[in-house]
Amino acid sequence: MKKVLITGAAGFLGSHLCDRFINEGYSVIGMDNFITGDEKNLVHLENHPNFQFINHDVTEFVSIEGDLDYILHFASPASPIDYLKIPIQTLKVGSLGTHNLLGLAKAKGARILIASTSEVYGDPLVHPQTEDYYGNVNTIGPRGVYDEAKRFQESITMAYHRFHGLETRIVRIFNTYGPRMRLNDGRVIPAFMGQALRGEDLTIFGDGSQTRSFCYVDDQVEGIYRLLLSDYAEPVNIGNPHEITIKEFAEEIIKLTGTTQKVIYQDLPINDPLQRQPDISLAKKLLGWVPKVDRSEGMKITFDYFKSLTEEELYKSEHKDFKSHIKV
Length: 328
Ligand code: NAD
Ligand code: UDP
Fold this sequence. Notes:
Blueprint lengths: L2 E5 L4 H12 L3 E6 L18 E5 L14 E4 L6 H6 L1 H22 L2 E7 L26 H21 L3 E6 L2 E2 L10 H11 L3 E4 L5 E3 L1 E2 H12 L7 E3 L4 E3 H12 L5 E4 L14 H7 L7 H13 L3 H5 L6 H4 L3
Parallel strand pairs: 1-2, 1-4, 2-3, 4-5, 5-6, 6-11, 7-10, 8-13
Antiparallel strand pairs: 9-12
Helix pairs in contact: 1-6, 3-4, 5-7
Bound molecules: nicotinamide-adenine-dinucleotide and uridine-5'-diphosphate.
């Protein structure tokens, strides 16, 4: 039985990846320190014979007993609200955390896939974004802590590949959504759906003309799975190219949720990218991968998930006191 370590396992994507690898017959070790994740996302795997969980901060030395075939490094705050609240932890998990996991992969002779992001393109001047675009990032802006951590993560991963001959994979993930996102993580889909469920107005940042392209989680997991098993070491975009403005998206959410609330406009966060759409030609060619789930279908499943949350979860405005939880 092949063994895989998944960091960020209690988070949105990490928990779906644990499910996928368990279903494929792997032995899975999930690792997380719960800084933005939730135990609830893994509760169904608690007694599974092929699942083990380790509560650990990956910025500290990571040690695993026995053999390891694959590592998927997904630990990192991922929502702009989260990484603005815990900027140093964000920089550390992308840099020190990645270094620890690359060292572990080298020691075990394991293949490692790291979760990069469309944010490496910053506020892109090339549209749609192809993997050969170097990006437009403000290193010292508030989002720089995430963007630069991920750019460093890519660099150190390629250095381990080139210098140590390590088998590495890099996925550049574009906005992905689905069940198990945290309702209060500030990302636009949980934000709008939470507002609709609480009977609040939907907050559009800026004039809503900025665009995003949303990928359903099952499609994202399929792309990541195929990339891991491929033999391609350079970055690959995985996302859904169906682009929409945030204003149009708010209208879709109003229709889907049946809310009678209106939209209100707030300031656009600094360096919020004005456009984003993945060019997925490389993923199509290399992996034979294309997204299959339409936004209307994926949004309906996601809204059903948010509707199933308790009143307490719906009204919880803060995830946790980040300051008392972390060491920076
Ligand atoms: P998430 O916040 O739901 O999950 C991240 C998980 O990592 C959480 O469970 C958190 O507790 C854990 N974590 C953070 N720092 C840690 C540390 N030092 N040690 C151990 N665990 C730690 O976010 P997500 O959306 O599931 O994102 C997962 C990964 O995918 C991240 O690396 C993110 O940058 C990347 N990504 C996600 C998206 C997306 O749209 N969801 C887009 C681009 C990139
Ligand atoms: N956004 C918004 N209202 C919200 C939350 C987000 O208009 O309540 C906007 C945000 O400014 C950005 C887009 O929605 O332009 C996507 O934001 P998100 O935080 O989901 O992810 P990003 O793609 O910016 O990392």
